Structures are given as C-alpha cells and as structure tokens.
Amino acid sequence: MKKLRIFVSSVQKELAEERRAVKDFILNDPLLNRFVDLVFLFEDLPAADRAPDDVYLSEVEGCDIYLSILGNEYGWKNEEGLSPTELEFDCATRTHRERLLFVKGEEDNGRDPDMLKLIRKAGSQLTRRRFIETSSLLREVYASLVASLETRRLLQILPFDDSLCAGATLKDIDNDLVTEFVETAESKGRLTLKGSRAPKAVLQNFNLMRDGKPTNAAILLFGKEPRRFFSNIQVHCLHFAGTEKRKPILSQQPYEGRLFEVIDLAVEFVLGKLDRPVGTRAAGTRASGDFEVPRSVIAEAVVNAVAHRDYRNPGFVQVIVFADRIEVWNPGELPAGLTPELLREPHGPLPRNPLIAEPLFRVKYVEKAGTGTTDMIADCLDAGLPEPDFKQRGPHFVTTVWRDWLTDNVLTGLGLSERQHEMVMFVKVHEKISNADCQKEWGVSRNTASRDLDALCNLGVLLKKGTTGKGTHYILNRKRTANAPKAP
Asked: Rounded distance, CA 121 to CA 7, Å?
C-alpha cells in the first residue's frame, strides 16, 4: 500500500505550535501513522535547501492531502501581493489535491483583511472547520483524516449505499416498484435485462443486496417505507416571499420516502412557484409554455443533491424558492479533487453513492458522463439566464439557479445607490413598482423617484409600462438587453 503524503500550510510564525502539534500527532497516532508516510513542514528543511518558491509549491503538487491552518495574519507578500499560504492553496486547487481547511477562532474580527478574503475564498469551495485551541484542532484533524481514509477505501468500512440497512428484510421492498423500474429503464433504452426479472434477482443484478438482505441503497430506492429506517432523508421545500431567508414563508412542504418520488415531488414544488408565460402564436401554431427556468435545470439540481449527498450527515436537503432565485442546499461537500470551478468544465463522474446513482441513470434521472452541471449551465444560457452558482457554505454545498439576469454580482457592478438597489429588490418581490410606491416606501419627492426609475430603465434593469397617469408602472427586465452589463 502506497502511504500518503500530507502538506501542512499556514503562516509559520503565528501558527508554529499548531503546525508542529499536527505533524507529531499524525505521525504518532497508532491508526493514522499506518497510512501516512510524510507530513511536510517547510521549517524542517535544512536551511541550504530552502528555495521557497520552488520547494513549497513542488511539495504541494507532490502531496496527497493539503492541510491548511488559517489564523489572523496573512504573511509575507510577493510582488503580486500574494502570500505563500495563498499560493499554496491555489496550487492545491489547481492540481486537484484533497484539501482540508481549519480556521482558528469562532469570530473573524481582528483578522488581516487579506486573510479574511482567503478564508472566504477557500470557504466557498470546501468546509471550514473551526477550532479554538490546539487540542480541538487535533480532534478536527483526526476526524477529517479518518473520513478521508474511508473515502479512499483504505479503511475497510463499507460506504453508506453498500451497507446493509439495519433491521430491513426483503419484505420491506416494494416489488411492484422494482418491476416498474425495470419497465421504465427498458423503455428509456438503458437496460437490457438478461435472466430472471424477479425483484430479488433485479436487486442482486444492481448489487443492492448483501447476504440476502437489502442495502441502504435498496431501501432508499425501492423500500415500502424508507423513513422507518432513516431519519434524515427528508427534502424540505420552502417558498419565501422575498429575496432573503426570512418570514413570511408562503409555503413549505417536507417530502420523505423513496428517492424517485421525493425527486419528482421536489421538482414539481419548484415548478409550481415559477412563472410560465402563455406566449403568442405569432411564431407558429403552438404557444410557448416554457417555465422561466428550464425544468431540466431544476431537476438536475435536485437530483444531484439527493443522489450525491452524504447520508451519514444528520442534516437534510433543502430546496428553497426565492423571488429571484432557487437554492438547493445539500449536506456535505464535493468529493476530493473536485471544486466548484471544475463543475463548470467537462469532468468525469464522481458519484458519492454509486449504487444509488446507477438505477437513477437507468431511468435517465442522471448521466454517467459527468455532464450534469455543464448541461445546467448551457440550458440556463440558452434561456437567457446567468450561469448557476456552485458554492460551499459551511457544512452545506449550495447550488443557486437565478430566475433573472440581475444576480448579486451584476447589481454590485452597476454602481447603484442604496435606494436604487432597494427599488430593484422591491420589484423582484412585488413584480412592479410605481412612482407613488417609491415616494411612499422611501419618502422621496416625485422628481427624485422619477430620476431613480429612469436611471434603472437606462441601465436595462427596469421596463416602463405606460406613459402618463396612475397606471404607469415599472417591471423587471428579466432578459438582459444589448446595452446592459453582462451577467457572470
């Protein structure tokens, strides 16, 4: 067995104690030292061998696991204004190293501004694990490395989907659903079944049984009552009135049960909250009935969350509809070596739960080619919408799909005043705004309101409906115009 190499990255002077403690702990722990060959600390090199730019970046490229400890100080900067710590992080990201991130302190007050930016950048890609003192750091490091060893299949612990479902028997399988699955997969052209079509034989064919008993994947896909065995399989769908996660909640619905059903119900919940313009027959004999966000994009976001989530995490999936976007919150983080940026490029499939993903593939819920996120991007752009956002937010991986082109980044780049920004948010929530609304909401004169509204029209943000009189109002321009700034 090839042993692992770990690179420890941090500001050396500020975190000298923590760096040394991590190395000593890993190399002396009776479990971890069976799998780890080297823990690299830059200060352990002989002085004559220290050519910083060459040494530490080549060591990052040669490591299996990049372990970063971030504190208050940013450290020495090169000519481009980047510290060795940030260069190391960027190198680990670029070369697809497995990355573990530990941040000292619960609060961010007092941190160097550049360090705070680095923490936020890293935190948008992977989970930030906080610690207060060295002992808590070592506990977090141990838990993270054990999880890494399990993922690499170096520790002989069966993955969740392949583990037997405690207390379940074949009597807990819905045989009719298995038969329906086979018929659907065959009709989709993704299954040619040879041999017995009996439900038990089908489960065996898809490796969903072990020792004559159903696995967790079998119960989640074909169980009569999966919630009897799992307390965290809920997909909680919410619809908020505004653009923030705050009351009033217009509607909410928890779905739990077999994954096929949960996925369909969650997708329909979202689509039921979206606009579906009737359109005209001017361009043909059939009026347009497309949703403002393509169904395929919503389905891919939900399927990814349900199929690839960490089911050992006690949290559950959330699907949230806001006035200007849809967010899907998934417990866990991306597999090692995969970053939010790589999701925007062609990449191979890395299913967290392959025994769950395989049946979903057979009925065309997912693809094996790793094209799901790139298809989402293409479908959004074809619909005149910005690309989806993919970010790590604490213990959740979040996919954001925008309902219009006015994303947070775009609005920031427009240079709007605070009041103009609030006007845009008002229209997103209430669908329209009038001069009288502006006067009432912000206590401004009619002329001031007119100037703000005209400025937003000139930027391509709002469209004016009517010319004079009380019926004149402004609506959101959901499609980017030629003179408007480009969305990301």
From this structure: 20
4-151 and 408-476 in the same fold: no
What is d(CA 262, CA 354) in angstroms, rounded to the nearest whole number? 18
Where does 349-414 have alpha helices with state H? Answer: 354-362, 372-382, 408-413
pLDDT, tens digit (0-9, with 9 covering 90-100), for 163-221: 999 999 999 999 999 999 999 999 999 988 888 889 999 999 999 998 899 999 999 99
**In this predicted model, which residue has the larger pLDDT, 369 or 427?**
427
Helix, coil or strand: residue 11: coil
Strand partners, 251: 239
Q: Closest by alpha carbon to 351, among 310, 383, 388?
A: 310
Q: Quote the CA–CA distance of 231 and 316 in Å, as a whole number.
A: 9
Kindly state the tokens that stand for 202: 């089908």
| Domains of the chain by residue range | 4-151, 160-228, 235-402, 408-476
Q: Are 404 and 324 in contact (CB under 8 A)?
A: yes
Angle between helices 354-362 and 259-271 (to 10 degrees): 70
CATH-assigned architecture of domain 235-402: 2-Layer Sandwich (3.30)
Q: Pairing state of beta strands 325-331 and 317-321?
A: antiparallel
What percent of the chain clears pLDDT 90, i.e. is strictly above it?
A: 60
Q: What is the CATH number of domain 408-476?
A: 1.10.10.10
E-strand spans in 198-316?
209-210, 213-214, 235-240, 249-255
CB burial of residue 130 (10 Å; 0-12, 13-18, 19+)? middle
The whole-angstrom separation of Cα 288 and Cα 274 is 15
- Whether omega before 248 lies within 30 degrees of 0, making that bond cis, reads yes
Give the residue among 401, 302, 374, 335 at the shortest CA–CA distance from 127: 335
Taking the model in full, what pTM does it have?
0.76
CATH number, span 4-151: 3.40.50.450
Separation in Å, CA 76 to CA 40, 89, 114, 147, 163 = 20, 15, 11, 33, 49
| pLDDT for position 52 | 59
Instruction: Give rounded-to-5 percent helix, strand, coil for the chain.
Output: 40, 15, 40
Q: Which residues lie closer than 8 Å to 386 by C-beta, 6 or more apart?
A: 380, 402, 405, 407, 410, 487, 488
First to last CA, the chain: 45
